[in-house]
Request: fold
Amino acid sequence: MTGDHITDRDLVIVDPERAPRHGDIRIFMIRNKDGGLDGVLKRLDLSEGTRLVPSNPAHAPIVITNEDDLFAVGTVLAVVRPVK
Reply:
């Protein structure tokens, strides 16, 4: 999420109870093809169905075709960058 200034080793503070809104940065768990879950930090785009959009243009959006494969963990409220 480098385009949103969230980098490796940053900590995110998440509200698990906030209702999802278009444009929110959220943590999601997505069911993978093996039936396991993968965690991702993406921006929620509801303008064309449900898409999880990275802020890094080198990565493609994830299009959610089955809502049962998507689990929202929470909405990012703040980013904390540890002091080196």
About this structure: The beta strands are 11-15, 25-31, 37-45, 50-53, 62-64, 70-80. Residues 2-80 form a domain with the Umud Fragment, subunit A fold (CATH 2.10.109.10). The chain has a mean pLDDT of 92.
